[in-house]
Structures are given as C-alpha cells and as structure tokens.
C-alpha cells in the first residue's frame, strides 16, 4: 500500500528552492531517504510532518493530506530527529513519558509505556539518571524510545546511527529491523548506505531537491538492466574492442582483467563465450553484476551507467515506485560530483571507487 | 513475529490530542521540573511566609480592637497582597526565566514540532507553568484569610468574604498573567537563562523608572503605571481601597502577558523547523 505520496512538491527556504517538482509514490515497509548533505532530506521530513509548508504540490502520508492533517499524522508517527535532543531537565524515563503525554497519552499510561519502550531497548537502571549525563548510544536509545512510546504506525528516523560505535550501530539497526518486522512502516533518512541496505526495501534518492531514484533497493542494486561482469586472464581493452565489434555494448569503467558489458539475451552471452574461446581467454567468473547499494547510489548520482543525461529537472520523468515497475535511474549531471564529495560517512570510499573507474560525466 | 515493544498495539485510528491535554502536559512537566530545583523550592517556601505573618497581624489587630474597643480602621489585605507580590515575583523569576531558554539551548524546539504540538500550545503551556503557582500563592492564602475572618474573627459577613475572594481572584489572575509574561518572554528572547533573568529584572524596574522620570519631568502627579510592579499596586488599590486607574493597572499586566505569549510563539515558530 502506498503510504507516501508526493506530487510536484516545491518548497523554498530562505528564498532558495530546496525541493523542486518532487514526485514519488512509495509503498515499501521500510523506505530509505538518501541524499547528500543539503539535498533536502530534512526539509522533506519537515514538509511530511507539516512543519514546513510546500509552495506548491501535494503531500500525503498514510492517506493524510498535509499540512492540514499534520497534528493527526504526528500523533500516529514517531519521529527520531537527528538535530533534536532529548527533553531536558529530567531522567530518561521522564523524557520518554513526557513524549508519550504529548501524543495524547495520560500520565499513568505514558509512564507504563515509557518503561516498556525502555525495556525493549535494553535501557536498564540508566533510565533514572539525568539525560544530560548520557552517552551517545544511550541518547540514541532514549530518542528511539521517545519515538516509540505511543505505539506509532510510522517511524521517521533521521540519521539514527550517527555517532554510534560499530557495535552500538548494529544493535540499533537490529532493533529498528525488528520494529519493521513487527509491521511498522519506517522512513529512514541517512547518508550511510550500509544502514539503508540493511533495513530498507525501497529507496528515495534525493539530489539537489529532485528525485534521483525512487524504487526498490533490489533493482537499484541490480542496476535495473542486464549488466554482466566477466573476470579472467586476457580480458583487456583489446578484447573489449573485439566484443564491441561483434555488437556487444561495453560499459565503463573496466578494471584489470575485467570487462563489463550489457547482455540483452542469451545470444549476447553466446557471442562472448565464442570470442573467449577463439582467443583462449581463461574466464574465471561471468555473471550479472551485483553492486553494493553505495556503488549503485554513486552510479545514479554520477550517471556512469550510460543513461542519457537530462539537466533540466522539470523534464525528468515522475517515478511511481509504488508499482515497483517504472523505477527510473536519473542522472545527477551538474551537481553530482559536488554531492558525492559532500556525502560524509561514505566519502573516502566513494571517491576511491569512483577514481578507480575513471572520470564521471 | 518478534515484538520489540512487547505490547499489544493500541488499535484504532489515533487522533491528535486536544490542545488542553497538550498544554496541561507541558505545564505539568515544567512544574515538576521546577519543584526539583532547590532555588524554586526555597522561593516557594518564602512565598508562604507572608500569609502566616498576615494571619498573626489579623489576630493581634482583632484582639487589640476587642480589648481597647477602638477600631483601627485599616484592612491589612492590601498590605498583604502588595507584600506577597514580592516573593511571588521572585518565584516567577526562578521558574520562568529558564523555561524556554533551556529548550532553546538544548535544541529541543524541533522535538516539540514532531509531536502534535503547535507554537501556541507550547507558549501557553510554559506560561501556565509560571502563572499557576503565582495565582495559587496569591489566591489560596486570601481564601484562607477570608474563611478565617468569617469563621473565627467574625469581622466580615459571608457575602463580604465572597466579594473579597472575587476581587482577589481578579488580582491573582492579572498578576499571574503579568508575571508569566515578564519572565517567559525574556526566556524566549535569549538562549541563556541568566540573560533572561537580567532582561526580566529590567522589565520589572526600567519601565517604572522611565514613567516616574517622565512624570517628574512633566510634573504629572498620578502617572499611569508602566511596569508590572506599579500595575499591581494600582490594581490592588483600585480593588481594595477604591483607588483610581485599576483598569489601566490590569491592562498593563495583561500587556506584559501578551508580550510573553507573542515573544514565545514568534520564537518557537521560527525554531520549530528542521
């Protein structure tokens, strides 16, 4: 069931357009909201909560029209915001209880549920301590408990694993995955691709305020087309040229002893095997290319998949991810390189991989 | 299916809570937090002393009148209220000046906006947290004194006592609104509670000084009140001593309340965003 619908959403902040003709319909149980810093993720969350008003366009979450039904949505959603802390001045259980009261629970019920939420998140006696002395991990758990206390249908999590050590991060992600498996819908805003890959079945990739990709993670990772990767001795540029002469589309970048090509049918693979046999090339591996989500996102953002770039955002096709059929990879064109550079958390790895593959458009 | 919350879902479609529920939750939390602070507890105890002193004065006055047969002809209520407004003002300063500044310093205003809380819910919740104890500390001793005078001393009728409580309620409400505005408003303007305290103290003193100086310069005998203190004095004189400009005094206090409300909603509206 589609639970996030964005239709031609335009939103300005401080006179600067932040979201531009944003359209997507998303149905996944867990949706990853991914983009570089400043891409518009937090702004979109603000608009989806009715805190920020769109200049034009329609936003519907859980079938509720925003910002008109903002208060009802906020009562049904639990939000863990990166830039917001914990209600100050009291203990952890006080803060979680207060969060429950704000969503409509009476104090006694809120307190009971606060303890349940903190129990579920393995917060022991620390819950009675002042929150000002909490470690980062404890703060994140407390924030998650605050978003869970009123049994929300939807969890909106903005960078939930920021600042956590690897063990704490994995624990928190596992908890969130369990919450997803309980049946809650999750919108995870992150720029840590591994987190999104771990949790999400759908992905909304925003870049410079426009949708760069919306659709299932599986198809994003698979590349959405028949890309094959062959590895073996003798697979070099000359062999690639020969394949090209036989009508196969060779894809960049190529690694040492590697060739990437597009295969539309078994006949294409037959051509490849035949040529390999003719030139006595020893093939160690041949199969559809499976990329990490990080690679896939970089491909989408830098447009290295061979798509024809379209620099005009308004010309970009709308994406109906709910149907999981019309997902479209859109190029990042002019801002891609900048966005890739600012994508903290994955920056070093991204740049290294990108450099290995050669220049991007 | 794993169950993280180990809880049966609430079921049904959740509705947004009423504004009253949200405002009450915010006010209750602030009162609970305030009660944990030593300074606030001390100021609260300090606010309870004047009613005790008044009770002693009343008893001594009544005994002296009965023994001497001489009517002293003064009502200690106005003196009590004027005096009581001082410790109550200190309590309001202790409670109100950190109330928004702390939220701003901890960057939790956006947190409120992720819950079904509107800026005016927030502002009223915070102001009620200051206004409720202020009003209570003015009203309850007054009610007790009224009961004392009717039941024990017997120097006023029941109707007279009710009239006194009614006037006291008006005074307590106006003072509570004014003090809430004078303390919460500065708290919304600055991030640091100590700066909010300085600003609030300035509001308690500077406008009156300016009005007094202006009146002296222009040779005006009975100037209108400018600050909350003179507002209270003028209002109490009008209610209990037939003095002039009572309505002006009340409007001044309401004006400070409005300042606190609008300063807070303006600040919250601008910072309740991601």
Outline of this structure?
The complex is a heterodimer of chains A (361) and B (274). Chain A has 361 residues and is of the alpha/beta class.
Overview of the structural elements:
The complex is a heterodimer of chains A (about 350) and B (about 270). Chain A is α/β, with parallel strands linked by helices and about 350 residues long. In chain A, strands 6-7-8-3-9-10 form a six-stranded mixed sheet, sandwiched between helices. In chain A, a hairpin with a 2-residue loop joins strand 4 and strand 5. In chain A, helix 3 crosses helix 4 and helix 3 runs parallel beside helix 5. Chain A starts with a strand and ends in a 5-residue tail after the last helix. By secondary structure, chain B is an all-alpha fold. Helices cover about 75% and strands about 0% of the residues of chain B. At the A-B interface, helix 1, helix 2, helix 3, helix 4 and helix 6 of A face helix 1 and helix 5 of B.
Question: Which terms summarize this structure?
Answer:
heterodimer; A: 361 residues; alpha/beta; Rossmann fold; 6-stranded mixed beta sheet; elongated; disordered C terminus; B: 274 residues; mainly alpha; 0% strand
Largest interface: A-B, 49 and 41 residues
Q: Helix and strand succession of chain B?
A: HHHHHHHHHH
What share of the residues of chain B does DSSP label as strand, in percent? under 5%
**Based on the structure, what is the oligomeric state of the protein chains?**
heterodimer
Q: Using the CA coordinates, give the radius of gyration of chain B.
A: 22 Å
Strand elements of chain B, count: 0
Provide the residue-averaged pLDDT of chain B. Answer: 86
Poorly predicted runs of 5 or more residues of chain B = none
Main beta sheet of chain B, described? none
**Overall 3D geometry of chain A?**
elongated
Strand pairing plus helix content of chain A: what structural class? alpha/beta
Largest sheet of chain A: 6 strands, mixed
């Amino acid at each position: 069931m589609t639970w996030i619908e964005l239709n031609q959403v335009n939103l300005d902040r401080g006179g600067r357009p932040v979201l531009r003709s944003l359209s997507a319909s998303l149905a996944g149980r867990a949706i990853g909201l991914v983009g570089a810093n400043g891409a518009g993720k937090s702004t979109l969350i603000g608009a989806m909560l009715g805190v920020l008003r769109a200049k034009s366009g329609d936003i519907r979450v859980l079938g509720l029209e925003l910002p008109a039904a903002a208060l009802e949505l906020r009562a049904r959603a639990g939000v863990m915001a990166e830039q917001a802390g914990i209600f100050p001045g009291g203990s952890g259980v006080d803060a979680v209880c207060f969060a429950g009261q704000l969503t409509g629970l009476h104090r006694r019920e809120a307190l009971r549920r606060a303890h349940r939420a903190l129990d579920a998140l393995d917060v022991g006696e620390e819950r009675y301590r002042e929150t000002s002395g909490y470690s980062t991990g404890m703060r994140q758990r407390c924030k998650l408990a605050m978003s869970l206390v009123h049994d929300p249908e939807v969890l909106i999590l903005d960078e939930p694993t920021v600042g956590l050590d690897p063990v704490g991060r994995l624990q928190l992600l596992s908890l969130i995955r369990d919450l997803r498996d309980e049946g809650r819908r999750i919108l995870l805003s992150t720029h840590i691709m591994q987190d999104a890959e771990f949790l999400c079945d759908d992905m909304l990739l925003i870049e410079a305020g426009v949708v760069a990709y919306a659709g299932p993670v599986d198809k994003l990772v698979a590349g959405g087309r028949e890309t094959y990767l062959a590895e073996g001795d003798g697979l070099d540029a000359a062999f690639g040229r020969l394949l090209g002469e036989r009508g196969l589309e060779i894809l960049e970048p190529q690694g040492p002893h590697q060739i990437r090509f597009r295969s539309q049918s078994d006949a294409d693979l037959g051509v490849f095997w035949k040529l390999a046999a003719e030139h006595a090339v020893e093939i160690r591996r041949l199969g559809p290319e499976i990329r990490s989500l990080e690679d896939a996102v970089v491909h989408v953002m830098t447009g290295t998949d061979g798509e024809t770039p379209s620099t005009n955002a308004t010309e970009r096709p709308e994406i109906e991810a709910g149907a999981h059929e019309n997902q479209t990879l859109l190029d990042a064109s002019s801002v891609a390189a900048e966005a890739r550079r600012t994508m903290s958390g994955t920056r070093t790895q991204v740049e290294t991989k990108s450099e290995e593959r050669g220049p991007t458009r | 299916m794993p169950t993280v919350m180990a809880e049966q879902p609430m079921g049904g479609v959740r509705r947004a809570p009423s504004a009253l529920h949200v405002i009450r939750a915010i006010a209750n939390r602030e009162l609970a937090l305030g009660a944990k602070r030593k300074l606030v507890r001390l100021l609260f105890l300090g606010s309870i002393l004047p009613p005790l002193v008044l009770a002693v004065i009343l008893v001594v006055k009544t005994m002296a009148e009965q023994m001497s047969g001489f009517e002293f002809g003064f009502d200690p209520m106005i003196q009590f209220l004027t005096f009581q407004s001082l410790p109550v003002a200190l309590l309001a300063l202790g409670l109100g000046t950190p109330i928004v500044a702390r939220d701003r310093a901890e960057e939790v205003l956006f947190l409120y906006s992720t819950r079904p809380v509107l800026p005016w819910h927030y502002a009223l919740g915070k102001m009620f947290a200051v206004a409720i104890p202020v009003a209570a500390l003015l009203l309850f001793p007054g009610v007790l004194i009224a009961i004392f005078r009717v039941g024990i001393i017997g120097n006023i009728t029941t109707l007279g006592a009710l009239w006194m409580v009614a006037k006291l309620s008006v005074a307590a409400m106006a003072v509570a609104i004014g003090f809430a505005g004078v303390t919460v408003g500065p708290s919304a303007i600055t991030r640091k509670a100590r700066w909010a305290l300085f600003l609030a103290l300035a509001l308690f003193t500077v406008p009156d000084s300016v009005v007094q100086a202006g009146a002296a310069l222009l040779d005006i005998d009975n100037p209108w009140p400018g600050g909350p203190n003179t507002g209270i004095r003028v209002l109490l004189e009008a209610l209990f001593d037939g003095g002039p400009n009572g309505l002006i005094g009340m409007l001044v206090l309401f004006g400070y309340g409005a300042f606190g409300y609008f300063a807070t909603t303006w600040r919250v509206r601008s910072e309740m965003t991601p």
